[in-house]
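Quick one: structure tokens for this chain, please?
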Amino acid sequence: MTPMNILDKSAVLFDFDGVIADTEMGILSYMEKVYARYGIRLTDEEKMSYIGTDGRELTKSILQKAGVNKSVEEFMEEKRQSGNFYEDSPDLKAMPGVKDFLQYLKAADLKIGLVSSTSTKLIITALNRLHLMGMQDVIICGDMVAHKKPSPECYLKAMAFLNVKPQECVIIEDSPTGIRAGKAAGSYVIAFKGGSILQDTSEADEEWMDYSHKIK
């Protein structure tokens, strides 16, 4: 397939984790520390299953399987009190080239959206730490929608705010869950593969390894 010219579109919608910042291994490390208190060690399959989701159903399953008498809400509160990658880690960094790419899109008068399953508080905190806040025309987070990815609701909501049609948008994702959400929304989906965790991105329309050669 011939790569799409992004400047032919009206808007670019980015996921955050694994697309704007390489967060996913760091997020999992905080999760693993809490599980370790209960003698639970996550399998590689379980770690991968967390990526691109809010993790609530998977957490419930893992706790039940291990015989831990704790609700998902209680576990998540314990996790919150233990700190998180977005607010606390010195390793939070933007993907190489992403700031230049965002500036390039803005200079070309394309609308920019950020669409994540993560909570608003954590995404805003991370964007401020990365000095990327204010580059987006819309931000939609997991606590703003009734149904998270792979539902297309979050992307369709962003498009409504931007007043653009699905075919006028490019969506950049890194996980199968996010790619399915983007495709269900009716947009062209680019799989970003520059993060530390490589996932199955076969359902995407195109794959990028980095941002460095995307500026014309």
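Residues 147 and 153 are 6 Å apart (CA to CA).
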